[in-house]
């Protein structure tokens, strides 16, 4: 019997649009207005994505009261513009934005259609900037044509760097943290701040998002840059942005992603101490992380110890890495009944993944058609794909791994909550 699953993506290469990345980069920057040179449907996609994030923030109590949200305006390209060009339409739209909103600056995001028809958006932006006396920034990425989501995000950030940030002689003892982690009030931001708590530094988590022009001037005085990604693709883009800023603003770049897992957190702290020139603070910072872990094990260890779990991998297996899952499950004394591969091809195609993940040989492996035998006997299911209509207690693993010990503590708490549900019906909780 095949497993009934939802939201399963098995392709190795994803494709996404750069425009939501541009929006997310500046959506909460005071004084900014974002213009999409695109059909109306493109703004609908971005609006739906931001609405989901809004509800997620509310549920997680992470939404600040006074958050600015930049107006999102579309030129509403139609069939007429795809034939005759959309330059005049864009000019009228920029006139409307400048006169209606009186923004501090405008950021233009280009769609794949504007790239195909070849509108001179850069020239139009320069002309309208001179006319209205307002900075109008044009991003180079065009929808699905180049850059994908992170291409748009980093392109927007570079535009802000080029226009509003200059090299400073004064250097502050602060770190500029790059990476989209829900904003400065999110749980992820708090988890990142804990990583730096043992060092004499201030972590700035407001660039390029949630960043006023005054904030940008202050961040330009940072001594260090730390890019965060959470996935190979995201980290590659964030590192490129960090190196661009480092060269332009004369900042040192910490070329390493945030720690994922217990032992990696201790190693990351040691490397960060060397990078900051504060090796004498490493031992205390590591000890604080160990105390956090001991507190989590004290709270949830007795309830979770001895529980049987199965791990289901079915969403972009090339980017799923269960090593951190194996580590924290073993630390609390849970037993892994097996790992189930969904949409992973034949058993022979698993070899590269198994080698990369370093899965112990004693853990049983199951193909999709054999999954029911292990899933029906286990207590909890840790999964990257929702098993629809199944009578299992499922924890939907986050696509982006949790940050440090604090992130793992949250996963422990969710597992504990999941274990408290009655077995007579299936339930699924999100791990983010």
Q: Care to describe what's here?
A:
By secondary structure, the protein is an alpha/beta fold. It folds into three domains: 19-164, 3-Layer(aba) Sandwich (Rossmann fold), CATH 3.40.50.1980; 172-258, Rossmann fold (3-Layer(aba) Sandwich); 290-430, Rossmann fold. The protein has 16 helices and 16 strands. It has helices at residues 19-26, 40-59, 79-84, 87-101, 112-117, 121-132, 148-164, 187-196, 213-219, 232-249, 262-276, 282-304, 323-331, 351-357, 371-375, 404-419, and strands at 5-6, 32-37, 72-74, 105-110, 136-142, 172-178, 202-207, 222-227, 252-253, 308-313, 335-341, 365-367, 380-383, 386-387, 393-396, 427-430. The strands form four sheets. It has a six-stranded parallel beta sheet. It has a four-stranded parallel beta sheet with strand order 3-2-4-5, with helices on both faces. A four-stranded parallel beta sheet has the order 7-6-8-9, with helices on both faces. The longest helix has 23 residues, at 282-304. It is globular, with a radius of gyration of 24 Å. The two termini are 30 Å apart. Residues 6-13 have low confidence and may be disordered.
Are there runs of 5+ residues with pLDDT below 50, and where?
6-13
**How far do the termini sit from each other?**
30 Å
Principal-axis shape equals globular
Q: What is the percent of helical residues?
A: 40-55%
Rounded to the nearest angstrom, the radius of gyration is: 24 Å
What is the arithmetic mean of pLDDT? 85
Q: What is the overall number of helices? A: 16
CATH topology of the largest domain: Rossmann fold
What is the assigned CATH homologous superfamily of the largest domain? Answer: Nitrogenase molybdenum iron protein domain
Structural class category: alpha/beta
Largest sheet: 6 strands, parallel
Named CATH architecture of the largest domain = 3-Layer(aba) Sandwich
Give a count of the beta strands, DSSP E runs of length 2 or more.
16
The fraction of residues assigned to DSSP E strands is 15-25%
What number of structural domains do the residues give? 3
CATH domain class of the largest domain:
Alpha Beta
Strands ordered across the widest β-sheet: 12-11-10-13-15-16
């Amino acid at each position: 019997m095949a497993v009934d699953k939802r939201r399963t993506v098995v392709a190795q290469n994803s494709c996404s649009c750069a425009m939501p990345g541009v929006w997310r980069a500046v959506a909460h920057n005071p004084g900014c207005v974002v213009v999409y040179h695109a059909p109306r449907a493109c703004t609908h996609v971005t609006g739906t994505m931001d609405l989901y994030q809004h509800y997620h923030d509310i549920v997680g109590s992470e939404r600040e009261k006074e958050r600015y949200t930049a107006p999102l305006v579309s030129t509403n390209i139609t069939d007429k513009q795809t034939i005759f060009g959309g330059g005049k339409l864009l000019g009228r739209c920029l006139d409307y934005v400048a006169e209606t909103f009186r923004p501090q600056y405008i950021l233009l995001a280009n769609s794949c259609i504007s790239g195909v028809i070849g509108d001179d958006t850069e020239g139009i932006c320069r002309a309208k900037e001179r006319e209205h006396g307002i900075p109008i920034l044009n991003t180079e990425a065009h929808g699905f044509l180049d850059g994908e989501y992170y291409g748009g995000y980093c392109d927007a950030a570079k535009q802000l760097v080029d226009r509003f940030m200059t090299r400073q002689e004064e250097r502050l003892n602060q770190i500029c943290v790059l990476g989209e982690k829900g904003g400065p009030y999110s749980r992820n931001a708090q988890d990142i701040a804990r990583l730096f708590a043992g060092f004499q530094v201030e972590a700035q988590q407001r660039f390029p998002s949630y960043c006023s022009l005054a904030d940008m001037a202050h961040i330009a005085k940072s001594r260090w840059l730390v890019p965060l990604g959470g996935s190979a693709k995201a980290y590659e883009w964030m590192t490129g942005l960090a190196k661009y800023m480092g060269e332009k603003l004369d900042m040192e770049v910490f070329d390493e992603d945030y720690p994922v897992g217990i032992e990696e957190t201790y190693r990351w702290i040691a490397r960060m101490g060397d990078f900051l020139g504060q090796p004498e603070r490493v031992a205390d910072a590591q000890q604080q992380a160990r105390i956090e872990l001991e507190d989590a094990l004290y709270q949830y260890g007795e309830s979770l110890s001895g529980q049987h779990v199965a791990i289901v991998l079915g969403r972009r297996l090339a980017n799923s890495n269960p090593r951190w899952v194996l580590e924290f499950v073993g630390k609390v004394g849970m037993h892994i009944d097996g790992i189930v591969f969904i949409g992973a091809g034949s058993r022979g195609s698993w070899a590269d993944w198994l080698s990369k993940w370093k899965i112990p040989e004693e853990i049983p492996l199951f193909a999709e058609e054999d999954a029911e035998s292990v899933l029906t006997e286990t207590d909890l299911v840790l999964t990257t794909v929702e098993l629809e209509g199944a009578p299992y207690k499922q924890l939907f693993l986050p696509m982006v791994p949790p940050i440090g010990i604090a992130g793992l503590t949250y996963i422990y708490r969710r597992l504990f909550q999941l274990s408290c549900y009655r077995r007579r019906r299936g339930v699924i909780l999100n791990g983010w």
